[in-house]
Design goal:
Distance between the termini: 113 Å
Shape: flat
CATH topology of the largest domain: Receptor-associated Protein
Number of strands: 0
Number of helices: 11
Mean pLDDT: 79
Number of domains: 3
Largest sheet: none
Oligomer: single chain
Structural class: mainly alpha
CATH class of the largest domain: Mainly Alpha
Strand content: under 5%
Length: 365
Amino acid sequence: MLSIKNLFKRKTEAQPERRIDFFKKKLKKAKDKQIIVQERKQRIKAYFERAGIEVNTQKVFKVFFNIAVAINLAISGWLIYYFSANYGISWGTIAASMLVLWILVFVLLIFAMWIMFYMAVDLKIFRRKVDIEEVLPDFLQLAASNINAGMTIDRALWYAVRPRFWVLAKEIEIVAKETMGGVDLKTALDRFASRYDSIVLKRSISMLNEGVEAGGKIGDLLNRIATNIQEQRAMLKEMSANVTTYVIFITFATVVAAPFLFALSQVLIEVVKNLGSALGSSSSVAGGVGLSISFSGTGVTESDFRIFAIVSLIITSLFSAMMISTIKKGNIKSGVRYIPIFIFISLTLYFIAQGLSSKLLGFFV
């Protein structure tokens, strides 16, 4: 049997080893966490570079935080004044409402602002991708002319840059700097293509790299790529022209027909309300004959229907703009600019039709 002294000795000898293992595991976790944080920062940085902007996320968070605080302060002050002045609610109820406001609404405001911020960045990335695809055929044809004149591929790409190419010119400058720094041209072009979710760009770069590896006539290859892009664009424009009838129908139904129908419906509610009050008074007069007509209940009020009509028009305009963008361009992001235009026109026509219908109703009644 082991003595107590030996057991204590083994236990004290094992403790340093356990401590070393514990600290090793802790250091490993800290390093893994630091690596994850660095990778996340790199992804965020690359995401903003695709949009062509430099953003400090900490400063953006501070701005959003201050905006949320200011909005919550304004809402809190208004709620305190409104409920205490009109309803005489106790301060305990007001304090509970403020607590909910500062926990729930504050978080929702910051979350909504971050979503809108990333949507704006994503739309900017999409806009840059479209700009690159628009000037890509011209750039490839200029590069092909330079290659046919005897330049190397990297110099031909560099000297094909023009100020009117804008985003593409900046990207080619980055590719040229990387190649001058010792990076392989194929790797630099692949990095450039991977920054944008463009099938046209990725296919063009892939065919260019394959042509360079195969050792073919790169000038003729670039001319063929440019011609194929232009033919594809012409075909898309022809397809867009063929569906113009559907676009006109959706636009008319959303922007013109729906506002007038909602306005007429609101006038109908007012007519039925006036008719009901008139019949109710006449039935009370003819009560001795045995006629009994009663109009009870609140029903749909004009203010409730107005709110319903405005919300319906906004939602309808939103989805109609998305449908038109999908039909004409093949994606929703291209039609984002249609959304505020559709909403503004439909609401304007609704209020105009509502005013005209009310005047006509007053004229005839």
